[in-house]
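Review this chain:
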Amino acid sequence: MVNIKYTLCAEGQRYGAGESNLKESLGRPLDSNGCTVFLCTAGCAVVFINFQKCVLKRGDVVFLFSDIVFAADKVSNLFSVLYISLPDEAVEETLYKLTSISFWDFIYGNPICRTSEKQYALLYGWCQQTRWILEDCMPENRQVLLSNNVYNLFTAVDSELKRESVYLSNKSKRDRGWTLAGKFATLLAEYCHVNRDVKFYADKLCITPDYLYKLTQKTMGMSPKEVIDQQIIVEIKTYLLNTDLSVKNIASELNFEDPSYMCRFFRRMTGVSPISYRNPGAHSEIL
């Protein structure tokens, strides 16, 4: 199996920090590590978060976790983000401490957050400080400083959300349903190449297909089958744009028995054929 997820970490590294225009990631799902933070510093982009189309522009901050599917679709010439990408072991203790249900409700319901100028300046400083910890801090002090810095970030976000009274109502608490929906997204990323059956994922989650339907409708606004189909389209697009594999070989990679069926499926979902989509003129990266 070809690994074609886009990573913000250098080869052999578990951490990533820096500035990017995300152009190299176009058409590829992001490996969000344990936690990735984007702060848009210029321009704008069209991105998909859990298959929902969103616009990312200067001043927006994005919080991504391992159970959130993110892919950049188009970016403007001036688009730029500061990014911090951290593994699970760097954030799990901090995330465990953050028990506010409303906080998690908001973060998962609003992965792109608009900042004020003051908030933007503070987040910019946090990104630069975290980058210094990762790149220049003495190794024996790095983990403690990093853990404290991550905790400070999310505690501050929690405080700002409370101060501005933008939390969601208690009617939409992030309960077991949210957790299961996140696990479904994780399982889908792992198994979509070999299985596209709703019952397969429901069995993996130890729930019924009907319950999985209710979960995805509530959290993603789609049926499980629609979520699976969207993930497969992301995978096909990624292969088309980032490998030289033939359509036949891509179909084999994604466990389609008949390449012609994959072509029909792709055309039905996107309006173009796989060959047309691979044509550079059919997929502009400029907004």
About this structure: Residues 139-164 form the longest helix (26 residues).
